[in-house]
Amino acid sequence: MCLIPQDESAKKKSRVEGRRPPPLDIRSYKFHRKLGEGSGGKVMLASFAPKKQLVAIKIVPKKPNRCNYPWISMEAWLSKIARECPFLCHSHATFQSKAQAFFVLEYAGGGTLYRMISRKKNLPTKSIQFYTAEMVVALQFLHSNGIIHRDLKPDNILVDNDGHIKICDFGIAAAGMFAGWKIRGLAGTPGYRAPEMLSLEAYDAGADWWSLGVIMYEMATGRKPFVPSLDPAKEFLDMKLTKVDYPSHMSQEMLDLLPKLLEMDNNNRLGVNGNIREHQFFAGINWSELEKRTTQTPFKPKIQPADKLKEIKPGFCAETSEENKLEDFTYVDYNWNWQE
Ligand code: ADE
């Protein structure tokens, strides 16, 4: 039997049942629909009820023996760093219940690049130039902070309510990757993984530049340059044997840039070797304007207001517990204007 002194048990009870500040209480949010499946958990469209403000909530179940706690903490830390870059998805708040960790993320209402590519097949060169340039800014920001994303793919690239890019999902990112550091381990998604990762060598930020090359190719053609496989050795072999098919409709600048990103030798890959911003493909981009988010976007999505969306009841547990607690997790971004 567990004997808890009377006053201790009362303290515990009030912590469990007491009302938390609205942004840190799952009961302050209305849920509308599932947006997708992220690394470690699902992402739901929700609204912060007091202000009818749309947000995306990533829900990560806490695993037994705390085995996914280091990943959850890493993602929380990265989502704080992300707010320094306009092309990374910011988190408004993070909090937890006994069973789940919640990430309240800014909602990007333009959908994913995956959906855009599936619908349009090939995007206009101007749009590819714009989206790629914003991704370049985001990647250079991450890399200069010693972070590699490791799972760049069109499903993780969102278009926000103004039509700008937001890279999301830092669930498998690697930190501490400053110049000269390399990491091992297969990560990411078939079709987007760099050859050095597939051949189980140590890799660095060059792996993200490879994925960017794959994404650009997909935006331009509606298909992938190499055959994805769950078997890394098979995928690697296909890369070694395939001569990439560059269609004749691609611009000369893109035809010059893509092989420099889809370069098998990561030491020679553009991004690692040379500044990609200087490539002719980006001629006409005013990088300082772009970084300020003042460049005109290819399109501006229409967003349905929160009160026009139907509500679903996913039934999360709001109860907290000292036993399964993630330390230093709970946080509200001071820039989030959540007060009524
Ligand atoms: N899918 C995953 N994360 C999302 C977000 N923050 N906004 C919109 N859709 C998403």
What can you see in these coordinates?
The protein is an alpha+beta fold and 340 residues long. It folds into 2 domains: 6-108 and 303-329, 2-Layer Sandwich (Phosphorylase Kinase, domain 1); 113-291, Transferase(Phosphotransferase) domain 1 (Transferase(Phosphotransferase), domain 1), CATH 1.10.510.10. The protein is 29% helix and 14% strand. It has helices spanning 6-17, 69-81, 113-120, 125-144, 195-198, 206-221, 232-241, 252-261, 287-291, and strands at residues 29-38, 41-48, 53-61, 91-96, 100-106, 157-159, 165-167, 331-332. A hairpin with a 3-residue loop joins strand 4 (91-96) and strand 5 (100-106). Helix 4 (125-144) packs antiparallel against helix 6 (206-221) and helix 6 (206-221) runs antiparallel to helix 8 (252-261). The model is unreliable at 1-16 (pLDDT under 50). It binds adenine. Adenine (ADE) binds next to strand 1. The site of adenine (ADE) has 11 residues, from strand 1. GO terms for molecular function: ATP binding; protein serine/threonine kinase activity. Pfam families: Pkinase (PF00069).
